[in-house]
Design a protein that fits this description.
Blueprint (H helix, E strand, L loop, with lengths): L1 E3 L10 E6 L29 E3 L7 E3 L13 E5 L58 H5 L6 H10 L15 H15 L2 H14 L8 H18 L4 H10 L9 H7 L3 H17 L2 H14 L32 E2 L2 E2 L5 H4 L13 H19 L7 H16 L11 H9 L18 H4 L3
Antiparallel strand pairs: 1-4, 2-3, 2-5, 6-7
Helix pairs in contact: 2-3, 3-4, 3-5, 4-5, 5-8, 6-8, 7-8, 8-9, 8-11, 11-13
Length: about 450
């Protein structure tokens, strides 16, 4: 492995090289260059690979990693300083002077492609998630979680409460989320009585979307589908309803058209329910289309640009509007990187300091769920558009001073799980309009 010290540093005792995990410490998610910190960096392996001695400015440093790199894959390394006279090394962004992995093959052998290794504290992981069992969470994952603590007690309380009657057309109904809590509880405890309550809710929910709007369907369909998935409910009538309800016209729109057209909370909720329904009924063709729409929402207009926007006050480039403003975006000298323009506009024309707009957090309820569902299906959605969702949360926290509250407090748990971040995340967290309990299902 080869890297180069920068043009202004050197050290008589540069450090020691270790092999480390590809994941954040204590987590299963791959670390990312833009999110890794001293606190969440993977721990060192038990044995040092090599010591790096004296280095001078702009000096190439080569270390053998033959004992670790034996096949194609992703490898992570840490270079730990042994001196108070620090040395700094170029990262991947520096191009040819950044870290590289050199392979020496025996005569006649064909080199095996291997992911470039990095010896600096801020490398980039390019691993793509592999499809994972369960649309939201698998039974095996549920069974591995603890039946203790504030998060579990809150889930248990909701699972054993009176859920009321399914009413999908009511956009303020929480019956769907409580049914999901019941499904999770039933799987973890083996409680067949609660499981039967879940089945009854699923049967009673069918058709209750009539008379409502796609905002209500987007909010309320998701948890019913996830509940059915986690308990393994595959009744033919329910599966058929889930398939057809995606294209049912409600007040002039369908779930799919709402996702395709609306770059705001309507569209993000619709997209989350659409994706869950696609996976539940096995419609991978529409799932791929939904993934493309979401990629466009996050800012990739080359992937999709068919949204119908409202006022463009908060857009970084009104001629090229997006769902989340791009990295480094500024307006009138103020940072708007990560702003959700079509929801932030609900607070009015651009002004500074920025107003605190609740619709932004509601849009993130649907957007973060889409990212998680896509990731579990093998799409690296959390990383799309320069980690657009992480940037959105950063803007709300650091610029707008507007952290998650009320029924949005489950979102930071999901985001922290995805990025290895440490945004404030209370427990027990309140469930949201479409899902909840991430403080139990996605606690790090």
């Amino acid at each position: 492995m080869r890297t180069q010290s920068d043009s202004a540093s050197g050290s008589p005792a540069t450090g020691t090289l270790y092999s480390v995990s590809n994941n954040y410490i204590g987590a299963t998610s791959p670390w990312r260059e833009s999110a890794i910190t001293w606190n969440n960096a993977p721990s060192l392996s038990s044995g040092a690979l090599a010591a790096v001695g004296d280095t001078r400015e702009s000096q190439d440093v080569e270390v053998s990693v033959d004992n670790i790199v034996k096949a194609a894959g992703t490898y992570s390394f840490a270079l730990v300083g042994d001196s108070t006279n620090s040395a700094f090394f170029d990262s991947a962004e520096e191009g040819p002077t950044g870290p590289t992995l050199r392979l020496t093959c025996s005569a006649g052998a064909t080199p095996t492609p291997t992911t470039t290794a990095t010896a600096t504290p801020t490398p980039t992981s390019t691993a793509t998630p592999k499809p994972t069992a369960g649309i939201w969470i698998s039974r095996a994952e549920v069974m591995a979680l603890p039946m203790s603590g504030k998060a579990w007690e809150a889930l248990k309380r909701d699972a054993l409460s009176s859920w009321g009657t399914p009413d999908i057309q009511n956009q303020d109904s929480n019956q769907d989320v409580l049914t999901f809590a019941g499904a999770i509880y039933a799987v973890r405890t083996g409680d067949k009585v609660v499981e039967q309550r879940v089945v009854q809710s699923l049967e009673d929910a069918m058709g209750t979307e009539s008379g409502g709007r796609t905002l209500a369907l987007g909010r309320n369909l998701l948890s019913y589908v996830l509940a059915a998935d986690i308990i393994g409910y595959r009744d033919a009538a329910f599966v058929n309803w889930v398939s057809k309800v995606r294209s049912t016209t409600l007040d002039g729109r369908t779930l799919v058209s709402t996702h395709n057209d609306r770059p705001n909370n309507w569209g993000t909720h619709a997209g989350a329910s659409r994706m869950a329904a696609d996976l539940y009924v096995g419609d991978m063709s529409d799932f791929a289309k939904a993934a493309t729409v979401f990629r466009g929402y996050l800012g990739d207009r080359n992937a999709y640009a068919g949204f119908k926007y409202g006022e463009l006050w908060w857009q970084a480039d009104p001629s090229k509007p997006v769902g989340i403003n791009p990295q480094g975006a500024m307006k009138d000298g103020h940072p708007i990187d990560g702003v959700l323009p079509d929801d932030q506009r609900r607070a009015g024309d651009f002004t500074w300091p920025p107003p605190k707009e609740n619709y932004v957090w509601e849009a993130l309820q649907g957007a973060t769920v889409q990212a998680e569902i896509l990731t579990r299906a093998g799409y690296p959605a959390w990383s799309w558009s320069d980690e657009a969702l992480r940037r959105a949360i950063i803007w709300l926290h650091d610029v707008d001073a507007f952290p998650a509250g009320n029924d949005d407090t489950w979102i930071p748990w999901l985001v922290n799980s995805a990025y290895g971040t440490r945004f404030p995340a209370p427990s027990p967290a309140r469930h949201g309009k479409n899902i909840g309990y991430a403080d139990w299902t996605h606690a790090q």
